[in-house]
Design a protein that fits this description.
It is globular and about 40 Å long. It contains five helices and eight strands, in the order βαβααββαβαβββ. It is of the alpha/beta class and about 180 residues long. About 25% of the residues lie in helices and about 25% in strands. The chain has one domain: 3-Layer(aba) Sandwich (Dihydrofolate Reductase, subunit A). A hairpin with a 5-residue loop joins strand 7 and strand 8. This is Dihydrofolate reductase. InterPro entries: DHFR-like_dom_sf (IPR024072), RibDG_C (IPR002734), Riboflavin_Biosynth_HTPR (IPR050765). One of its GO terms (molecular function) is 5-amino-6-(5-phosphoribosylamino)uracil reductase activity.
């Protein structure tokens, strides 16, 4: 069975909103290797609407950028109740039907794992539905004070720490699984 692997850049105070505005000073080869390891295990990306729109505004227009071959070439499933189409970024498809049922069906299908990048609302919903198998948090040494948090005060989600690695930039890469 495939795994759902969610990877998020978050601040010390749990904010994962708009990482493009604060995370790049911490990017290095260590973080690139950690993110690359997730991508190498997956053959499909699962993205929420906001994350898809942000990524779609960059990647299709920058085919020479490092990582563009993976970002543009990997099939993307987009979760949205407001988008009519996802033609702006090749290899993107709207995920139809009930989210939990559709993702459970995807997990049971053939192929490699499915990765989620960012997509706080989507990740939160799949954690609550117990469909996330690994949660990779790249915790940055910065407190942002305001913004959307991964955990929004909803129900308890017990997790178990599988590993943790500290990068030279002070970023902590933690990997959790459902407890």
């Amino acid at each position: 069975m495939k795994k759902i692997i969610a990877g998020l850049f978050i601040s010390l105070d749990g904010i994962g909103e708009a990482p493009a505005t604060w995370h790049f000073p911490y990017w290095n080869d260590e973080m690139g290797a950690a993110v690359g390891a997730i991508w190498s295990r997956s053959d499909t990306m699962l993205l929420g609407r906001k994350t898809w729109q942000e990524l779609a505004s960059y990647w299709p227009h920058n085919p020479e950028a490092e990582g563009a071959d993976v970002m543009n070439g990997t099939p993307k499933l987009v979760v949205s109740s407001t988008l009519d189409n996802v033609d702006a970024w090749p290899n993107s498809t709207l995920l139809e039907g009930d989210l939990v049922e559709a993702v459970a069906e995807l997990k049971a299908g053939p192929g490699k794992d499915i990765s989620i990048s960012g997509s706080l609302t989507l990740t939160r919903a799949l954690l609550r539905a117990k469909l996330v198998d690994e949660l990779h948090l790249l915790v940055h040494p910065i407190a942002l004070g305001s913004g959307t948090r991964l955990f929004d005060g909803g129900e308890h989600i017990p997790l178990q720490l599988l590993s943790s690695t500290t990068f030279t930039t002070g970023v902590l890469h933690t990997v959790y699984a459902p407890a």
